[in-house]
Amino acid sequence: MATTSFGFVTIVICFISLSPFPLLGAAASPDPGFSLDLIHRDSPLSPLYNPNHTDFDRLRNAFSRSISRVNVFKTKAVDINSFQNDLVPNGGEYFMKMSIGTPLVEVIVIADTGSDLTWVQCLPCDPCYRQKYPLFDPSRSSSYRHMLCGSRFCNALDVSEQACAMDTNICEYHYSYGDKSYTNGNLATEKFTIGSTSSRPVHLSPIVFGCGTGNGGTFDELGSGIVGLGGGALSLVSQLSSIIKGKFSYCLVPLSEQSNVTSKIKFGTDSVISGLHVVSTPLVSKHPDTYYYVTLEAVSVGNKRLPYTNGLLNGNVEEGNVIIDSGTTLTFLDSEFFTELERVLEETVKAERVSDPRGLFSVCFRSAGDIDLPVIAVHFTDADVKLQPLNTFVEADEDLLCFTMISSNQIGIFGNLAQMDFLVGYDLEKRTVSFKPTDCTKH
User: Domain Peptidase A1, which positions (predicted)?
Assistant: First the structure.
């Protein structure tokens, strides 16, 4: 049992400092690495920081974005081909600050492990959603190149997502997201740069991206588009795979520390996780290949182990029944399983069970005074990840302590609250994801 204080995390990514790797591209060393700072969306360091919001306001907003995001996933009863294109949370959980083109134009884009295609708003744009940064004008960039129909990356788009301009043979893309947001435009290549010219920039080889000339929906005006960090062929991670060897990792600092220190995301050599207490679980290949699927076998509350009943087939747990997603705040579990988990929690936590007056959380306790809370372990295949109370409970209101896992009839999602103070590493060559308990303030 452990006693702790509580926080929650919703993250904005801004690229602040870089490791001294001058170039990523054909002439780069075989396996360079680079690291970047992450700034919490609601941190005073964030451009989105609203001093009028309370911690409770920020938590409720993060919860609402989680619901919006998870609703994009379809139940397994739905034909897999009816999946919506990628995921976009309302306003985005993470942002990247980078530059594009020659000469450089600074843009801020949503960074999303649940998306593949990288795209930005481009001129001429009709319609465009409002953004604070200038729109990218490809006609003024000497490094911009259209992608032609029939090319490998054009064909990487689903048939429903691509079209061919009859007069120019330019590959066009058409994306509609689960929250009714959309982007349409031309597939192209362009130079991307991380960091300004005064901070030893990292230059990325020409990246295939979408130059969006028709965009709308729920995108935040701070953002100029999306950087896809998923597992599909069009994602930034996949395009840089030969350079970074398919490796990236991040370490999310607890909310209570965000004012003093930033989280980190690393690519390539810098991202390798090693040492004691590292556990790894296989990534499961499923359609769509954008998402990072793992197999959840059981959840333990203290010493009580509960088999995960989602997708039981002849007594065997279905492989790939959970998606690890840094863009979802909460963790979503199968509703039938969650009923049993809820019962065990109520028996274990020695505090008064109360209802959430706003009806958002299903398991809450009155938090007057310290409460001893159990360590909750999630048992992935070959990897037991022990979650501390800061990963599994939040103070959702005054004297109201709520469990950050909730029930869902859709596919399970392992959210970013559960990943705080863990070094989480993805190796797309070995097809594994690894966890290491880490003080992320010192990482």
Answer: 94-436
